[in-house]
Amino acid sequence: MKTAIMPHILVVDDTPLERDIAAQILRTVDGWTIHTAASGEAALLMLREVPVDVIVSDLQMPDVDGLELLEAVHESFPHVPLVIMTARGSEETAVNALQKGAASYVSKSHLLRDLVPTISSVLTHAARDLSEARLMSGMIRKQATFRLPNDSSLIPQAVSYVQGVLDEFSLCDERDRVRIGVAVEEAMVNALVHGNLGVSSELRERGDDSFSRLCALRGTQEPYCDRHITLDIQAETDEMTLTIRDEGEGFDVDALPDPTDIENLARCSGRGILLMRSFLDVVRYNEKGNEVTLVKRRRGDHEDSRARVRIRPRKTPMLAR
Length: 321
Description:
about 325 residues; alpha/beta; Rossmann fold; Heat Shock Protein 90; 2 domains; 5-stranded parallel β-sheet; 5-stranded antiparallel β-sheet; about 20% strand; globular
């Protein structure tokens, strides 16, 4: 598989203006080569000619829609992750796409803010090193615990380590490997930003730099800067369990809203929880709300135990997670 050093990204949307907007945003990143397709059918033809690393696709398209494209890509190009673009009215389909294998999602109303970071994250987690694959395939049990400082630069390395454990035990295919990487990154960012630094996602909704400025400030202030993230990894033949704990104040787990509420899907709050629930078999918080346990089971015998995400068309108060 190609690395993401000079990635090729394919944007698929049947609306010319929206396709061009997404492509232009992605072209602001040096080293990224952007291709476009006006339909799902055209995208499938292009995949046979162009070495694409990530697909960004609209959901609602004629002929071959986003879900059908997702299924076709998984069948014929399983190493290529697909990110969906959601619009008002497509929320239920978006949740279905995450369940069926999409690597992540971004709201069309927030493309400028979220598209590049989302694609960067997926590219990072799609990369892999196969040099030790033969040796590691013989491992039958692994346990490791990390105590990490509040340093966001360590998160990609930690996620890569987790993906390496998935590889060692062959717990998932390439598509789920990327998806789990995305989910674990969300969990660790939650622990660092919302847990240890105590910064609310709601600040991002303002559309200014309030969120980033407060993160930077608290990263230098006590007690926030002295807190740590604990990452515990336990893996065996058929299952991997991750426990991610921060040293913050926690939050009210019982008041946790359904992040698939159609009124909330495009908001920053709850995004990480939605992705975790979509990609892992078990997502469980402790009573204090400063520790989350994520379980990935080998597909097959445990297929029915995968965490279910249901769309609920009702308004609920959002938590800052």
